[in-house]
Design brief:
Number of helices of chain B: 0
Number of strands of chain B: 11
Shape of chain A: globular
Mean pLDDT of chain B: 91
Radius of gyration of chain A: 13 Å
Oligomer: heterodimer
Order of helices and strands of chain B: EEEEEEEEEEE
Number of helices of chain A: 0
Radius of gyration of chain B: 13 Å
Mean pLDDT of chain A: 92
Order of helices and strands of chain A: EEEEEEEEEEE
Helix content of chain A: under 10%
Distance between the termini of chain A: 41 Å
Strand content of chain A: over 45%
Largest sheet of chain B: 7 strands, mixed
Shape of chain B: globular
Strand content of chain B: over 45%
Structural class of chain B: mainly beta
Structural class of chain A: mainly beta
Low-confidence stretches of chain A: none
Number of strands of chain A: 11
């Protein structure tokens, strides 16, 4: 059974600081997703990572994938308040992703 | 923009009742998945439909059932509602080799 673990589960950070969210998964998979969810809202797709060494960047967020280590990271650079949300990684198998528990990020002044 | 629409957005039901949730997409993706998201948790996979056939199922009892229609819209039916069924229910559509695009969800409260 595929297990996906994220850490930390809660993250409070100051504006302007950098931080990394980690996503570990238990079995080999061909794709990894990062999603953002605002309170009471649905999930917004951020990144899809398809191969070992894949790196994608959008604004202050950068995601990477190491399939050998079964690890993905979501790096936040110079955080701003608008990034406050819950971030989920999901690992895909046969197009049915298994989600982690999410990292609740709060960015404060 | 896939335009995934779910209805209703909010629903309150009594324990033991039955509920039907609906999902439609403007894009015509032929794969639809349903997820249950309890408060503070990640979405849990319920089942997936591909071309009107169930294509995979998570660890949910048979009282959770679904349908996909020729226009790729979908329903999730839950019988004999229990208090623990209270959650946000999300549908997601996807095509081959694409990520899943989620609807806004239906917030179900069972009292």
């Amino acid at each position: 059974e595929l297990k996906v673990e994220q850490n930390p589960l809660f993250l409070s950070m100051q504006e302007g600081k950098n931080y990394t969210i980690y996503c570990n998964y238990s079995t080999t998979s061909d794709r990894l997703y990062w999603y953002r969810q605002d309170p009471g809202k649905s999930l917004e797709s951020l990144f899809v990572l398809l191969s070992n060494g894949a790196v994608k960047q959008e604004g202050r967020l950068m995601a990477s994938l190491d399939t050998k280590a079964r690890l993905s990271t979501l790096h936040i650079t110079a955080a701003v308040h608008d990034l406050s949300a819950t971030y989920f990684c999901a690992v895909g198998g046969s197009y049915i992703p298994t989600f982690g528990r999410g990292t609740s990020l709060i960015v404060h002044p | 923009e896939t335009g995934v629409t779910q209805s209703p957005t909010h629903l309150i039901k009594t324990r033991g009742q039955q509920v039907t949730l609906r999902c439609s997409s403007q894009s015509g993706h032929n794969t639809v998945s349903w997820y249950q998201q309890a408060l503070g948790q990640g979405p849990q996979f319920i089942f997936q439909y591909y071309r009107e056939e169930e294509n995979g199922r998570g660890n949910f009892p048979p009282r959770f059932s679904g349908l996909q229609f020729p226009n790729y819209s979908s329903e999730l039916n839950v019988n004999a509602l229990e208090l623990d069924d209270s959650a946000l229910y999300l549908c997601a559509v996807q095509g081959l080799n694409t990520e899943a695009f989620f609807g806004q969800g239906t917030r179900l409260t069972v009292v």
